[in-house]
Prior knowledge:
The complex is a heterodimer.
Chain A: H1 10-13, H2 20-39, H3 42-67, H4 75-91, H5 97-119, H6 124-144, H7 146-149, E1 155-156, E2 161-162, E3 165-166, H8 170-192, H9 195-205, H10 207-212, H11 217-243, E4 245-246, H12 253-266, H13 271-294, H14 297-305, H15 307-325, H16 329-343
Antiparallel strand pairs in A: 1-4, 2-3
Chain B: E1 3-14, E2 17-28, E3 32-36, H1 43-50, E4 58-63, E5 66-67, H2 76-79, E6 81-83, H3 96-103, H4 121-139, H5 155-168, E7 173-177, H6 185-202, E8 205-209, H7 213-219, E9 222-227, E10 230-235, H8 237-242, H9 244-251
Helix pairs in contact in B: 3-5
Amino acid sequence: MRTGNHIESYPRHISLSDNPVVWFWLVALMAAMIVLPAFSGLFVLGLAIRILIAAVGAIGLNLLTGSTGQISLGQSGFLAAGCYTTGLLIADYNWPPELALPMSGIVAAALSFLVGIPSLRLKGLYLAITTLAFSFIITQFLLFAEPITHGPYGVRIEDTVLFGFDLADPTTMYYFCLGILVLVTLGVLNIMRTRVGRAFNAIRDQDIAARAMGINLTTYKLTAFAASSFIVGLAGGLMAFQFRFINVDIFSVTLAIEALAMIIVGGLGSVAGAIIGAAFIILLPEFVGDAIGLLPAGISDVLARGALEIKGLLIGLVIILTLRLEPDGLIGVWRNLKRYWSRWPLSV
Amino acid sequence: MTVLLTVENLTQRFGGLVAVDNVSLDVEEGSIFSLIGPNGAGKTTLFNLVSAIFPPSEGKIMFGERALHKAHTHQLAEFGIGRTFQNLAVFHHATVVQNLLVGLHHQLKANILTAPFFWGRPRDEEIKARRRVEEIIDFLEIEHLRDLPVGQLSYGLQKRVELGRALAIAPRLLLLDEMVSGMNAEETEDIARFILDIRDEFGITVMMVEHDMGVVMDISDRIAVLDRGQLICVGEPGEVSQNPDVINAYLGKK
Lengths: 348, 254
């Protein structure tokens, strides 16, 4: 049994993890991720790319909703803004993709002030509705501002070469998304261990006390919106390279609900939770689809026809189960297991 | 003695109710100044005005050169004013260390553009902040609790963490709103000792609202008594306890 955790220097106190076992497994995980394309087929690789992009988006949403406590249903709006920025800049304005991708983050961050400013006065449910309305405004704009956005015809992206790497190739795309995810993860983890991250959490937990501690609510709420939307916009930009033909239909309300499901199931406020949640929500319908395939032919045919409905049902179900059984999500389950293991035989 | 805080003709109305009625008082630097009075006397309102939670209907509050009646709450930390709340306002999910670190907010410089890259200055200032937090933990004798979520601690200890968070601001003036309410005798004694130490060791001026007369009479240098929004008496503990108006306010007329 471990007797305690003894730390002898301040730099170790503020390191991301001072536990060599954690670092070992992280390196092992990274190695596995790096060799994955060598062993997997196109289907698995496509799934992996979807998970990586969803994880980037979920980390962005989590920064706002999980860490700062500002509930957002506007995820699909910000994803759409990022996706169309990259798509249109490349297709219509011949921007190099290297610049178009960061621009999608910047445009989404700029748009976030539209919802960020009302958020200074709105809380909880009212803010959620406002963000939802924002997301409708964005998608309606994309649909009807045909001269700028191609409206219902969608945008086709031909130039997908970044720094000499062609993202139309699934393996290249996979590595690129992995790289972005790693950078975003490190960036957000770092933010959360400085005064900026603490200010976000303080606003979530006790906003009056936060103000008395010298935290300017206006600045930090807008900062949270901008930082979160920048990351979500990047995820949207990645989606442009993933689909290479983009259309407003992708950015439905369901997408926003799925994003919320990812961070709730993974564990609100945790970066690792957002990644695990993204993987879980993307893989869930796949596994259930496989399970349905195992059923007798008559039943599986009926169920396969309602695949989309079943997916919606499942997402609703896992949200309810998470809130009922473990509000801290999968990452909470993991922490409990860890505590049980390290305190055994004294654990309860 | 220099005057640190001046309240001049301060009035606060909520609709028809005059919660604070034309109050003027001075708080001297390095003193422990208590604000007492029956329920509804306007003590907490006065406190909220001093900590700029809302602006007063009339009157001025000067903290040195700074006009608190025009300030925003978030500027107070920078001015050098820390406070605790009547109904605990700690961050329950965060650990003791994380709670105290929030108090250091205005002394740090990281922003959203430097924070994602955790080397150089953001890292150096975090190390310095950790060191400072350890000093406060040491002072408040809560070393063994440092990594526990504050929500798991007893009420008395949570109050102590809140006191530590206000101390982390490195204030010149500390506002304590009913620190010892709901504490047992031992916890109360601990807090009284900490308040005296805060004044004596750090030279921080303390202004407190308190119902526990034992604490008030024992440690205050000066006491102001409010009743229905009006200031009825200011003086040393001995004078105040003999003042007929004060006795009337608390016990009623004979």
